[in-house]
Please model this.
Amino acid sequence: MRFSELELNRLRWRSRRGMLELDLLLLPFFDEVFRDLPEVEQLAFVHLLEQEDPDLLMWFSQKGESEVPELQDLVDRILARVRP
Model:
């Protein structure tokens, strides 16, 4: 699936959560990595953006894990980008 520029703009906007902790993870990942991901991972990212902020914060702060393996794999990948 190829995303149109309009769809990409909408996804970028949806990556802005209004919560600094999430914005610092999701926006750079979208800007720097999303377009180069395989389609299955792009769709997982779109699915990730559909989740509630409290769940995302819990997953990214590693206080819980997604029950959906594809989402948890993506959370781990995003976190790996920011770990020293």
Q: What stands out?
A: DSSP finds five helices and no strands in the chain. The CA atoms of residues 4 and 10 lie 10 Å apart. The chain has a mean pLDDT of 96. The helical segments are 5-15, 20-32, 39-49, 53-60, 69-82.
